[in-house]
């Protein structure tokens, strides 16, 4: 696998057209697409969902469980790993795959979004962004070049360039300013990344973030200008930050309509199961979201009939599994009544089993969506899913 993927990028970072890292198997620019992404640690059949392993761990699951849930590729966070345990330590130990015991593909974000969303006193200038560690208060300075060095040290399969993210709504001048800076930072990131090596020597793919705020025309312009840069794929940033859902998909379509069909697109940080299907319909190939893992720890399970909250007293004597259709360990062996008891008693097993179930549910949905795409039956598949899936008002998630 590694030898095959090694051809995707030659010495010095030049991309080879003879060994493409992404094959579009069905679909086009703005359409539901099925594709094949080749990485240094294996193939990813898209559309695909990446569980979030913030600190090098999908909270509560072992690597074997992450794999059993149907995961092909997972996401980890540059920001958290750079602060603890540090990218240099992970490099000395052979890279993130060996460190966390996961031999499949890994994508890391660039850290930009988390710095801007987690910190009030961020000083952003053209050179980079300065912030204080949330762990011990020491000052860190992240530049586009440093973001790529950290991800090279981690040895991940897909690195993402540093962007200047902003929250919507924002003034058009602020959106333009952040978008132009993102393009300049993308160029710097890609230029520097071409000089770096991973701890294993295996090649790394680089995705560039497309910004552009809430205006479809600006988004399309930024997408086209990003596509002119030598990146291996694209990350759509700055969506689902306060705008209406219909606007989210209009913006995603504007971006994807301006991107070349033969490179993958990753929609950052969303969303619910229906969101994933809407995203696929808008031409997205890769997703990540904390919902299946974070909500599991709060007692929420995603099922084919919609979300349910295991804390609800209605489940107190319910001997059924979370989801009759699911084949995860929790659904094969444990009842809703028992899982509710575990959650009420604060037992770690409740968090583990709900997380295992939710990740399995997301991965099963993506696998079935991909099979429907291959059959040319994506729309009927979505109709059938929506007929069963009910968004019901759940108890507030703390
Ligand atoms: Zn299950």
Can you summarize this structure?
This protein has helices spanning about 1-5, 65-70, 80-85, 85-90, 95-100, 110-120, 145-155, 170-195, 215-225, 245-260, 275-280, 290-295, 330-335, 335-345, 350-375, 380-390, and strands at about 20-25, 35-40, 40-45, 50, 50-55, 75, 105-110, 125, 130, 140, 160, 205-210, 235, 265, 285-290, 300-305, 305-310. By secondary structure, the protein is an alpha/beta fold. The chain has a 6-stranded parallel β-sheet. The chain has a 3-stranded antiparallel β-sheet with strand order 1-2-3. It has a 3-stranded parallel β-sheet with strand order 5-6-7.
Mean pLDDT: 92
Strand order of the largest sheet: 4-15-14-13-12-11
State the distance separating the first and last CA atoms. 43 Å
In angstroms, what is the radius of gyration?
A: 21 Å
The largest pleated sheet is described as: 6 strands, parallel
How much helicity do the residues have? 40-55%
Strand content: 15-25%
Q: Which ligands, by name, code or SMILES, are bound?
A: zinc ion
Report the principal-axis shape: globular
* Poorly predicted runs of 5 or more residues: 1-19, 394-398
Class derived from helix and strand content: alpha/beta
H/I helix tally: 16
| Strand tally | 17
């Amino acid at each position: 696998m590694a030898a095959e993927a090694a051809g995707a990028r030659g010495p010095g970072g030049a991309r080879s057209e003879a060994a493409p890292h992404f094959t579009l198997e069905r679909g086009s620019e703005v359409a539901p697409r099925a594709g094949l992404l080749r990485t240094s640690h294996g193939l990813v059949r898209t559309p695909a969902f990446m569980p979030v392993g913030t600190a090098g761990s999908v909270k509560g699951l072992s690597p074997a469980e992450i794999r059993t849930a149907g995961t092909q590729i997972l996401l980890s966070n540059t920001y958290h790993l750079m602060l603890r345990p540090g990218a240099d330590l992970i490099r000395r130990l052979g890279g993130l795959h060996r460190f966390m015991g996961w031999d499949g593909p890994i994508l890391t974000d660039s850290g930009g979004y988390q710095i801007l969303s987690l910190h009030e006193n961020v000083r952003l200038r053209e050179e980079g962004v300065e912030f204080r560690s949330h762990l011990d208060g020491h000052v860190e300075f992240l530049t586009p070049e440093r973001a790529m060095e950290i991800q090279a040290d981690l040895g991940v399969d897909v690195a993402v360039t540093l962007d200047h993210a902003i929250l919507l709504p924002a003034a058009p001048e602020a959106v333009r300013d952040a978008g132009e800076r993102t393009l300049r930072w993308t160029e710097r990131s890609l230029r520097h990344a071409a000089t770096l090596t991973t701890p294993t020597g295996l090649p790394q793919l680089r995705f560039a973030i497309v910004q552009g705020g809430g205006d479809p025309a600006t988004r399309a312009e930024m997408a086209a200008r990003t596509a002119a840069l030598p990146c291996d794929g694209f990350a759509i940033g700055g969506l689902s930050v306060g705008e209406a859902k219909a606007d989210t998909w209009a913006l995603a379509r504007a971006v994807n309509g301006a991107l070349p069909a033969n490179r993958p697109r990753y929609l950052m940080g969303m969303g619910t199961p229906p969101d994933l299907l809407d995203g696929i319909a808008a031409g997205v190939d890769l997703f990540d979201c904390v919902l299946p893992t974070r909500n599991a720890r709060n007692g929420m399970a995603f099922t084919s009939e919609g979300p349910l909250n295991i804390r609800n007293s209605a489940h107190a004597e319910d001997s059924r599994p979370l989801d009759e259709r699911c084949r995860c360990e929790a659904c094969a062996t444990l009842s809703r009544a028992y899982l509710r008891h575990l959650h009420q008693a604060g037992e770690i097993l409740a968090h583990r089993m709900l997380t295992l179930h939710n990740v399995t549910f997301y991965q099963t949905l993506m696998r079935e969506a991909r099979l429907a795409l291959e059959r040319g039956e994506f729309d009927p598949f979505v109709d059938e899913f929506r007929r069963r899936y009910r968004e019901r008002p759940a108890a507030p998630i703390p």
